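Example record used in the benchmark description.
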Amino acid sequence: MKVVVIQGPNLNMLGMREQHLYGPMRLEDIHQNMAEVAKQQGLEIEFFQSNFEGEIVDRIQECLGDADGIIINPAAYSHTSIAIRDALLAVRLPVIEVHITNIHAREEFRRHSLTAEVASSVLAGFGPFGYHLALIAMQQILNEIARLKTQEQKV
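Model output (C-alpha cells):
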C-alpha cells in the first residue's frame, strides 16, 4: 500500500518560521520520522512539497492509479483553494488533512477549510505528531478498505 504525503506552501520553511506556532522541527525531520513509521507498518511512502497550487493539483491527480491514500497539509491553500479541493474529490482516494496548529484557535480566516470538506478526517493542533497520527489512521483506513474488498470477492 502506498501513501503520498503532500505538503503545501511555506511548509518547507518549518523550523525557521514562526517557531512559537510551528515549533523547531524541520519538514525533512517530519518526513524522516514518517518514513520510519511507514517502514514499520509495511507502507510505501512518498513525499511532495510545493508552494504552487497548480503543482499540488497535478501531484494529487498523479495519485490516481499510483497511490492508495493521501495525507495532505494544504497549509494556506486549505482556506482558499477550490482547485485542490476538487482534485482531492476527483481522485476518490482516502485523504487525511493535517494541520500543525489548531486552525480553529487561530485567525478567523483560517477557521474554515475547503479541503477538509472532502477529507476522510482532519488532524489539527497536534504539532508535528499529527503526521504520525495521520499515518496510523491511514493504515487503519487502508486495512479496512482491503478487508471490505476481500469480503466482496468472497460473495
